[in-house]
Amino acid sequence: MPPNDPALKSFIATAPESHFPIQNLPFGIFSSVEDATLRVGVAIGDHVVDLALLADADLLPLPSEVFRSGSLNQFVALGHATWRVTRELISHLLRDDNPLLRDDHTLRSAALLPQEEVTLHLPMEIAGYTDFYSSKEHATNVGSMFRDPENALLPNWLHMPIGYNGRASSVVVSGTALHRPKGQLKLPDSDAPIFAPSRKLDFELEAGFFIGQPNALGDPINIAVAEQHIFGMVLLNDWSARDLQQWEYVPLGPFNSKSFGTSISPWVVTMEALEPFRVASPAQVPVPLPYLQEHTDNGFDITLEVTLKPAEDSSGSSVGQVICKTNFKAMYWTMAQQLAHHTVSGCNTKVGDLMGSGTISGNTPDACGSLLELTRNGQNPLTLTGGAQRGFIQDGDEISMTGWCQGDGYRVGFGNVVGKILPVQ
Amino acid sequence: MPPNDPALKSFIATAPESHFPIQNLPFGIFSSVEDATLRVGVAIGDHVVDLALLADADLLPLPSEVFRSGSLNQFVALGHATWRVTRELISHLLRDDNPLLRDDHTLRSAALLPQEEVTLHLPMEIAGYTDFYSSKEHATNVGSMFRDPENALLPNWLHMPIGYNGRASSVVVSGTALHRPKGQLKLPDSDAPIFAPSRKLDFELEAGFFIGQPNALGDPINIAVAEQHIFGMVLLNDWSARDLQQWEYVPLGPFNSKSFGTSISPWVVTMEALEPFRVASPAQVPVPLPYLQEHTDNGFDITLEVTLKPAEDSSGSSVGQVICKTNFKAMYWTMAQQLAHHTVSGCNTKVGDLMGSGTISGNTPDACGSLLELTRNGQNPLTLTGGAQRGFIQDGDEISMTGWCQGDGYRVGFGNVVGKILPVQ
């Protein structure tokens, strides 16, 4: 049976709502108390499979050093065929009808670690980070608020996936707390800026993809093969200080308002695992230029939710309140289009480049992927259970994002990306 | 004598106009026909000193692998004291009154290679690339042309060193030819963009600096110590496709118009070597916020020239025509201010981060650091010797930038950064 078959079962039992059934098998980097080495793991149910140990046991045809190099980059650089074959071999090893690992109790107890006992790290060494702006609803909402509601979309928006280079150094893995940033902001009643902690700290719900197969300088990626360059996807929280952003962004784009931290989920869900959830993306009018025209469905049906756990919550609950429900399939520009556009002038990519989708907003009020949109720039604060109100993020608040593809009786999920905001340092 | 003493002489003779006398000693990466290993070298006159061989001979107290790791990063990561001591030791070894290397003919012929016989490579593995916009004259010129001549500077410009994240992957070393980029551009008589080769290809004369001492996420760099984080400087050509840029840059900044290639000079001139050429930078009105206030002179007196060698030039001359003469000391925002601002919201830096100054323009017509300004967006083409006219760069044109600090009878120079534009691919 192929690794995406809904009928596949693993000897590691998973509930229907688990994000990590045998149909998923996302890759990540973990360490454990017993072994602080950062190594490649694959999530299965509540466990992590240690690929270095599987390689040591000759169950994977790769040198185990590839899985002990600190990030996924060395493994991913081996190419598309290696990613696919490795996932197939792991799928085979984890099947309930394969006794090889299932009945080898010594290896099984060494190579299958409970997720709650491991520490997850940044999955890839991120060479470059690009952030797009590909939700029509988000761009329209922002344009309406800050520019002209009658001409909310700028003239270029419908012609190309607008994007900008972000700051790769400050991309952090889920669970990393961040301090509220300080910076320049201009109050409405003043001509001069002040230096102060951000008063309009926000999240942005995004998905990100990692480049697995690079292209050379001067050699653009054709849209027909663009997805073959993508290793897999993560969830991404593009933390944004709206007041810093509004003052600094003209004419060269966001800078300090974004560079204090960007959080990603630890498990990279492969494009192979996402394949059954491919859907058509929204119709594009006007028809884009030929280099952006797609002849396959390049959207993906990924249900997304954002929860906010306010600082006031003393219930001890680990769960916040859902404040956004949306879906990645609403994105106007696809990942293939983003990559074709990014490279069309000759820009090269590297293994480990991260590309963010831009805020994912839908067409209903609760489908907005940022507080900026959910609260109309703080003017209509959210009232949370317990009475707390939020225009923007307060110190001690925790934002969690999750996402999954719904299969027939199983989910291919991303886990979550969580981050807490600490007081200014 | 300290390594900056104007009276110092090396047994490698250098003319007064040489960029690489013993007072400079810039670091770079080279390989040779005999040994393709990328290794660290220091320029002295027309020669390169192979630091790996000096370390093998126990003349430098560092393991020679540090100098054979492919870039300067490992060496630079050893810290400020190591850079300074290494430069002092090399200065001592190269002095005309020190027989140690001078009279060891075997070592000398192995470790001192003619520059014309080596290949120079990208000096550092560039983690992140940030480009600022710190010349008041340049920002004023651009604002006058594309926005409002009466309000050429945007409201934020006098309050912070505006910058944006550039694309690190496409930074190339001097000598790398680049193809004319293709992309979306909108002609004045049309509402819709076309896809075409750029018709307004330009250079931007900039200086760049490399981060040598990183800061951690959430831990801003104080302006008083900012320069200690800088390893050294290079010249930088921020190639720009003006027509792509004008169509794409709103609201998130330049993207494809810049990411097809950025050229840098191969020799990193250390901040120690530049120390004698420190000058006051222009007075800042209004006084910036405290985190940007300087109490030392943080400008540098660096004479700069750009030459254009047109495709039509069949003279065989290797020299182009000077089309810009300016000086780095005119920059409004200093490197220390750029770095303090970059990190003030908590952004971390890494060893090997490259930061560009932005186009360096002075206050006379021939002191403009781009064709956009020199030709008023192509409206007033330059007429070159031989009659060729240039509004923007044509296929086959070569742009060369050079720069030096003038000492008393010697120069501390940058060499040059050269690049030729090839036809669209």
From TrEMBL, chains A, B:
Top-rank taxon: Bacteria
Biological process, per Gene Ontology: homogentisate catabolic process; L-phenylalanine catabolic process; L-tyrosine catabolic process
Sites where the protein binds Mg(2+): 238, 258, 262
Gene3D superfamilies for this protein: Fumarylacetoacetase, N-terminal domain, Fumarylacetoacetase-like, C-terminal domain
Binding-site residues for Ca(2+), renumbered to this chain: 131, 204, 206, 238
Protein EC: 3.7.1.2
Domain Fumarylacetoacetase-like C-terminal: 129-402
Main enzyme class: hydrolase
Pathway where it operates: Amino-acid degradation; L-phenylalanine degradation; acetoacetate and fumarate from L-phenylalanine: step 6/6
Keyword Cell cycle among record annotations: no
Entry's Gene Ontology molecular function annotations: fumarylacetoacetase activity; metal ion binding
Domain Fumarylacetoacetase N-terminal: residue ranges: 23-123
Keyword Membrane: no
Keywords assigned: Calcium, Hydrolase, Magnesium, Metal-binding, Phenylalanine catabolism, Tyrosine catabolism
Active-site feature positions: 138
Requisite cofactors: Mg(2+); Ca(2+)
InterPro entries linked to this entry: Fumarylacetoacetase, Fumarylacetoacetase-like_C, Fumarylacetoacetase_C_sf, Fumarylacetoacetase_N, Fumarylacetoacetase_N_sf
Pfam families: FAA_hydrolase (PF01557), FAA_hydrolase_N (PF09298)
Family affiliation: Belongs to the FAH family.
Protein name: fumarylacetoacetase
